[in-house]
């Protein structure tokens, strides 16, 4: 069974962040709506969805979404591995 949660930038941009579970792995997906799509795997498999959702919600509200995402994940000690993009 796959789960997912998505967030869109509130500042008028097309930035999208979401997390999904597939095959026992949790992945974070970023898309800027134009040319850039990136995917990271959350290390340790399925983790605390509430912490992950909080990090994505905070990051997508920033003007610079990807750097903010890294900062928010680091604050919450969520390790990731880039797998695409």
Describe, in short, the structure shown:
27% of the residues lie in helices and 35% in strands. The chain has 2 helices and 5 strands, in the order E-E-E-E-H-H-E.
Instruction: Please compute the radius of gyration using only Cα atoms.
Output: 12 Å
Low-pLDDT parts are none
The total beta strand count reads 5
Q: Strand-residue fraction?
A: 35-45%
Q: If helices are DSSP runs of H or I spanning 4 or more residues, what is the number of helices?
A: 2
Largest sheet: 5 strands, antiparallel
What would you call the shape? globular
Helical coverage, percent range: 25-40%
Strand order of the largest sheet: 1-2-3-4-5
Mean pLDDT: 84
Estimate nothing, just give the exact number of structural domains: 1
- What would you call the structural class? alpha+beta
**SSE string:** EEEEHHE
How far apart are the first and last residues' alpha carbons, in Å?
Answer: 25 Å
How is this structure best described in words?
This protein is α+β, with helices and mostly antiparallel strands. The chain has one domain (4-84). It has two helices and five strands; from the N terminus they run E-E-E-E-H-H-E. The chain has helices at 49-60, 65-75; strands at 4-8, 16-22, 25-31, 37-42, 80-84. The chain is globular. The N and C termini lie far apart (25 Å). 20% of the residues are buried.
């Amino acid at each position: 069974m796959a789960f997912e949660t998505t967030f869109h930038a509130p500042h008028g941009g097309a930035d999208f962040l979401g997390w999904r579970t597939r095959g026992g792995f949790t992945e974070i997906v970023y898309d800027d709506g134009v040319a850039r799509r990136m995917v990271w795997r959350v290390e340790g498999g399925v983790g605390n969805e509430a912490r992950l959702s909080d990090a994505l919600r905070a990051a997508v509200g920033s003007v610079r979404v990807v750097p903010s995402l890294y900062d928010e994940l680091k604050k919450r000690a969520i390790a990731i591995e880039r797998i695409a993009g």
